[in-house]
From TrEMBL:
Pfam families: His_Phos_1. SMART domains: PGAM. GO terms for molecular function: hydrolase activity. The lineage of its organism: Bacteria, Bacillati, Actinomycetota, Actinomycetes, Micrococcales. This is Histidine phosphatase family protein. Keywords: Hydrolase. PANTHER family: BROAD-SPECIFICITY PHOSPHATASE YOR283W-RELATED (PTHR48100), GLUCOSYL-3-PHOSPHOGLYCERATE PHOSPHATASE (PTHR48100:SF62). Its EC number is 3.1.3.-. It comes from the Bacteria. It comes from Demequina muriae.
Length: 199
């Protein structure tokens, strides 16, 4: 049986500082590249020699994906369906800065609700975009590794399994970790492995 492996990109300096990235194109530095290389080796052992690697267009994802692609001897394919949700005017800020400037929206977000800020990507839109991309790339014969982002992966999984976007059933996926999903004969998606490789 084939599978979808949903891999969150390795950690960036922005991540280490607690800054929201969203659509900002932040690169991987040395620590992130080392984390990506270590994860790529473990994923390569899981998927074997015949797998496809598809990535968000953002540099932190493509750099992570390229570590795996080089091990498998394939080219990374970029698909905008897997880019991160936009965080609007919050991008580049820390949660402390956000709480100080937008206290009500900060509280809404931490209750799992949508903040009312300029440029925020709605959960419904992101879930539909990522879910469509995952269904499109699934191949019953060849495993596909999708390198994406925390919110995008979380919402895409909820879309596949048919849960509301407000659900916290799967929580956050750590940087460099991955989920494994399979499609049953009944057409139902199953999360077979959760947050593998988490530090």
């Amino acid at each position: 049986m084939s599978s979808l492996v949903l891999w969150r990109h390795a950690r960036t300096d922005h991540n280490a500082e607690g800054r929201l990235q969203g659509s900002l194109d932040i690169p991987l530095e040395a620590d992130g590249r080392a984390q990506a290389a270590a994860a790529a080796a473990r994923i390569a052992a899981h998927v074997g020699d015949h797998a496809r690697v598809v990535s968000s267009p953002l540099a932190r994802a493509t750099a992570s994906a390229d570590e795996l692609s080089s091990l498998l001897g394939v080219e990374t394919v970029v698909d905008g369906a897997f880019t991160q949700r936009p965080y609007g005017v919050w991008e580049g800020l820390t949660w402390d800065e956000i709480r100080e400037r937008w206290p009500e929206d900060y509280d809404r977000r931490h209750r799992g609700e949508e903040p009312f800020i300029e440029g925020w990507g709605s959960s419904a839109h992101v879930a539909a975009r990522v879910g469509e991309g995952l269904r499109r790339w699934y191949d019953p014969e060849v495993p596909t590794v999708v390198v994406s982002h925390g919110s995008a992966i979380q919402l895409g999984v909820l879309d596949l399994v048919g849960l509301d976007t407000s659900s916290r059933a799967f929580g956050k996926i750590p940087h460099g970790a991955w989920h494994v999903l399979t499609l049953s004969d009944s057409g139902a998606w199953h999360v077979d492995a959760f947050s593998q490789g988490a530090d």
